[in-house]
Amino acid sequence: MLRGDKIWMGQGEESCYLLLNQANRHGLITGASGTGKTVTLKVMAEGFSHAGVPVFMADAKGDVAGMCEAGTENENVTKRVTKFGIEDWEFKNCPVRFWDMTGGTGIPVRITISDMGPIMLSRLLGLTDVQEGVLNIVFRIADDRGMLLIDLKDLRAMLNYVGEHAAEYATEYGAIAKQSIGAIQRALIAVEDQGGEVFFGEPNLDLNDWFQTAADGKGVVNVLNAAKLITMPQIYAMFLLWMLSHLFDTLPEVGDPDKPKFVFFFDEAHLLFNGMPKELRDRIVQVVKLIRSKGVGVYFITQSPSDIPDEVLAQLSNKVQHALRAYTPAEQKAVKAAASSFRENPAFKAVDVITELGTGEALVSFLDAEGTPSIVQRAKILPPQCSMNAPDPANVQKCMDDAFGLMNKYGEAIDRESAFEMIREEAEISAQQAALELERAKLERERAEFEKQKAIEAAKAEKEAERQRIAAEKEAERARIAAEKEAERQRIAAEKAAAAEEARRIREQQKRQDAMMRTATNAVNQIGREVGKQILRGIFGGRR
To answer: For the chain, which end, N or C, has fewer CB atoms within 10 Å of the first or last residue's CB respectively?
Structure first.
């Protein structure tokens, strides 16, 4: 309940006030189940809201959402209000906006893979150091190539891409084991099963939309529907860690303000710290130490202080400790540790009181005006002015209607060009190029085959030409020889004809001569046969 510049949280021997100008020094609400942590959370959150401080909280059981309704009169509330002597008591609601990371009722909450970053994502996936190193390389390659990692399909595509080109990137970025790529891909299945496909994406959450106040000046209570998220501890823890880190990285320094700029309630805090690597724990310690200077108060809610690392506990100055159980040695040790964290009250021993506290009762110690922890008090927590029950669905719908502008902004998922599309486009281009290369190779083969065939045909033509040339030469030679033979034959024939003609002529001449001889002979014979005989006889006779 707001009282000027402080929130009246409970009543013990003295009233217990959480000072607004000390509220950014962080706090802790602890206690076993059923001891009243949720009521304390509501009283504190509505006090901040009434003071104009925006608040974020997760609603694991559905009853925190009742802050959108004013409370109603009941016997327990009446008794406590009367006992505390609150004269100006009235039931009030808070301006509430409902958010959801799993696609349920509420304004969708999404963040991109790039915003989550490789370190947080490695924590989310439970990767080994080697696998985390490979994931860092994947993010670096995506950055260097201008490939946005927005949702899980982008990350999957990028992992496949890097795995396929591991040898090409090894020299520049280091060895990329395909076994690590496979392990990361398998780890993503669990995230997908927990709703990661809905959570990772765009429009990316702008935390400025949580730093809002209503028209009446009250701070908006941003309630994250965590009913399903509690069964998805990886995503829940990583989102809260991302939000805390993002607040630290983006908000300006404001020093020590009169009241916080924003208050962050981290319910089921043990989910964040279970198995957290040292580097992430160091990051949380750094953020918790320094974020108060940016006007942000961080309040962890869990069952036992032992759920929170000592380095973080040391930064939580405003404490509300509900009852703890001490049935086992470990629980007894936790009780002693919790009691020792308070500034001692001479009136009682905190270690004894912690196990005796009733529902709605707590050990309370807030910072005073000087920033010093007050003496611990055993106090009854005030009832919340808002409803302690789950809200009427009609009132939830009214809150959703009032957030119409945000639903327009975040309601529809946007799937713009990112790594998945770029890799797919590159693959399509590569496939087209490969097809073109195949076609080019086919054409080259056909051309080579054509050229080969052409060469063969040319060779055949050349051979045929050569054959024809040789045949022509042979034919010409044969013709020449035939001509020569014919000429020789004709010459010989001519010679033979000439010889025959000469012989005939000679024969004719001989015949004429013979004929003349005969004629002459005959004449002689006729004329001088007797003379001849005489002569002959004279010749022949004289010789005798």
So the answer is: C
